[in-house]
Automatic annotation (TrEMBL):
Entry keywords, A to Z: Hydrolase, Thiamine pyrophosphate, Transferase
GO cellular component: acetolactate synthase complex
Name of encoding gene: iolD
Annotated segments matching region Disordered: 599-623
SUPFAM superfamilies referenced in this protein's UniProt entry, alphabetically: DHS-like NAD/FAD-binding domain (SSF52467), Thiamin diphosphate-binding fold (THDP-binding) (SSF52518)
UniProt domain Thiamine pyrophosphate enzyme TPP-binding: residue ranges: 439-575
Residues covered by the Thiamine pyrophosphate enzyme central domain: 223-356
Top enzyme category: hydrolase
NCBIfam families according to UniProt: myo_inos_iolD
Domain Thiamine pyrophosphate enzyme N-terminal TPP-binding, residue spans: 39-133
Sequence similarity: Belongs to the TPP enzyme family.
Gene Ontology biological process terms, A to Z: inositol catabolic process; isoleucine biosynthetic process; L-valine biosynthetic process
Protein name according to UniProt: 3D-(3,5/4)-trihydroxycyclohexane-1,2-dione hydrolase IolD
Species per Swiss-Prot/TrEMBL record: Planktomarina temperata RCA23
């Protein structure tokens, strides 16, 4: 049908949802909707108009009812991460505190370069009823409101002040969500009156459109510079970041590393780029790394970083690498490609690695260098095997990780986030299949674990319904955000949640002690304002939300409980106490810069400060 001159009268809200329903993406030759649906909590700011539009599209854009807007955003982030940023979910929240709850999730998506679309209520454009319920009034700037705060945590931001604007705004927002170099959250503020205003939209605006992720070839001159540096390397190394997976470049990374004999170290986001037993996998690098990975980083003379933003946990606050090491950074984002005096190689990782492989002219890294690196990896493997062994010390994160690692299916997805578990999973998990580990550490956000697990499970059920999503969380994160256990039960999206209880915020207590401070206000037992410490009955709590729940006393019991959870058809929560002091992985850490007091009445704090400053001597200087 020729729609060039035809129009249809719709409300602003109806036009937005109709447009989203008509957007598709080509993924490996198959067409699917680029928007997988959304997460929503309705209020006066979005239910009358946007709710009406969503109801009429409920069959093609499923709307998942959240329990907390922050959790909805975390679930959307995990959904996008599972789909390698090729699909996204929207979140809708009412005007006021509902929208404010999305700020943390937007920041997480911004830090991790993940797509999420936010459709949020706003105050009335006419201002006739001002001040309205939940409105923030700025006396000298009546146009300024809560939604403006999202400009700091979004890649794209707009406020719709006329229905015709969506014709420009929606394509621009989608272009941002799908841009590999500029990917991040998009926010559209929807004044409550404008949502219901009508406009005669061209029917052509709603014709189905198929999107494709851009693949940009690196500049030929930048390739020449990169190859010149690599060809003279005596001790080359590759850093494999999360961008390797987003570019679907795992095969190309492996081929390049094998062709040139270059050992590979992984970032937290790139933790499942190579299988654990690949002969070129030297383990994770940095603050939460491995002895073998950090050994390699410290000695490498030329480092090819692929798809990493080189944050401080990867670089050990820039002490993990030699000060004179030459970086080459292959990245779609110009900002990341030029960090720390790197030779920039701006472009798609898949295309860039293919070009490097074709043009390296038979270069091979010195065999002795790889032999030494593999010897270090064998030492690290032996350490991990002992570290995860049940009974080697009091109950620990590492032991729990080892139990699950031994019993899970290779394609099961592991989700973890802030606290001590990102370090423990990164160090101790042995990757069984590519792209199966989601450790959220770009924003290090407590509360991501269960909500993110729910979002990951929604995505996983679209492609791998037989597999499980396994969540590792501490008691602190559980207490912060646990309501999506209920969401998973309501929606039939099964999770296996391991709650490892160490009596508070134990990893920060460890940092507190390591910097010479006494334990204070982190472990429940060390809070002076608590009269009678007691343990939360996490099993009773989880069971009250509909989950199968049980407490185990040790790793042996955990193994049996995990088998039961695998066999179950709904969400299971398994609780085990772990030691707050003796249960940590003690090896594999590089220096990390934290602020310590230059003066203190406590000698332990002064001594720790001096010790910390000694580590700074290795810090690279640069931008």
């Amino acid at each position: 049908m020729d729609t060039a001159d035809k129009t249809i009268r719709l409300t602003t809200a109806q036009a937005i949802i109709r447009y989203l329903a008509a957007q598709y993406i080509d993924i490996d030759g198959e067409k699917t909707r680029v928007c997988g649906g959304g997460f929503g909590i309705f209020g006066h700011g979005n239910v009358p108009c946007l709710g009406e539009a969503l109801y009429d599209h409920r069959d093609v854009l499923p709307l998942y009812r959240g329990q907390n807007e922050q959790g909805m955003g975390f679930a959307a982030a995990a959904y996008a991460k599972y789909h390698l940023r090729q699909k996204f979910m929207f979140c809708t929240a009412s005007a006021g505190p509902g929208t404010a709850n999305l700020l943390t999730a937007a920041a997480l998506c911004h830090a991790n370069r993940l797509p999420m679309l936010m459709l949020c209520g706003d105050t009335f454009l006419t201002r006739l009823p001002d001040p309205v319920l939940q409105q923030l009034e700025h006396f000298g700037n009546p146009a300024l409101g809560l939604n403006d705060s999202f400009q700091a945590v979004c890649r794209y931001w707009d406020r719709i002040t006329h229905p015709a604007q969506v014709i420009q705004t929606l394509p621009a927002a989608l272009a941002t969500l799908l841009d590999p170099a500029d990917c991040g959250p998009a926010f559209i503020a929807l004044p409550q009156d404008v949502q219901g205003w009508t406009y005669d939209y061209p029917l052509s605006f709603f014709e189905p459109k198929v999107h494709r992720i851009r693949q940009q070839m690196p500049d030929a001159r930048e390739l020449e510079d990169a190859m010149a540096a690599l060809k003279v390397a005596k001790r080359p190394a590759i850093i494999a970041g999360g961008g390797v997976q987003y570019a679907k470049a795992v095969a190309e990374l492996t081929q390049f590393a094998e062709a040139c004999g270059i050992p590979v170290i992984e970032t937290i986001a790139g933790r499942a780029n190579l299988l654990a037993d690949h002969p070129l996998n030297m383990g994770p690098v940095g603050v939460t790394g491995s002895d073998s990975g950090n050994w390699l980083a410290e000695r490498a003379d030329v480092i090819l970083s692929v798809g990493s933003r080189l944050q401080d946990f990867t670089t050990g606050s820039w002490t993990a690498f030699a000060q004179d090491a030459q970086f080459i950074s292959l990245n779609t984002a110009r900002h990341d490609a030029g960090k720390h005096r790197a030779l920039p190689l701006v472009g798609d990782a898949k295309l860039g690695l293919r070009a490097l492989t074709e043009q390296m002219g038979g270069y091979r890294a010195p065999g002795a260098w790889l032999d030494e690196a593999q010897a270090e990896r064998r030492k690290w493997d032996a350490y991990v095997a002992q570290n995860v062994k049940p009974g080697n010390r009091p109950n620990s994160y590492a032991q729990a990780i080892g139990v699950v690692n031994a019993l899970c299916d290779p394609r099961d997805r592991v989700v973890a986030a802030a606290g001590g578990l990102p370090a423990e999973v990164t160090a101790n998990w042995r990757t069984l299949d590519i792209g199966t580990v989601d450790v959220e550490f770009g924003f290090s956000c407590m509360g991501y674990e269960i909500a993110g697990g729910w979002g990951a499970r929604i995505a996983q059920s679209e492609l791998e319904p037989a597999q499980d999503t396994i969540v590792f969380t501490g008691d602190g994160s559980y207490m912060l955000m646990n309501s999506d256990i209920y969401s998973s039960v309501l929606t039939g999206k099964k999770l296996i949640v391991l709650v490892l209880d160490n009596g508070g915020f134990a990893v920060i207590n460890k940092l507190q002690n390591n910097t010479g401070n006494e334990s204070f206000n982190n472990l429940i037992a060390d809070c002076p304002t608590i009269d009678a410490p007691f343990s939360v009955d996490f099993t009773a709590h989880a069971a009250a939300m509909g989950a199968i729940a049980e407490r185990v006393a040790n790793p042996a019991e955990l193994a049996e409980a995990f088998k039961r959870a695998k066999a179950a058809d709904k969400t299971s929560v398994i609780v085990m106490d772990v030691d707050a002091y003796e249960g940590w992985t003690t090896e594999g850490h590089s220096w990390w810069e934290v602020g310590t007091p230059q003066v203190s009445a406590h000698s332990s704090v002064r001594n720790a400060h001096e010790d910390w400053e000694r580590g700074r001597k290795k810090q690279r200087r640069g931008v």
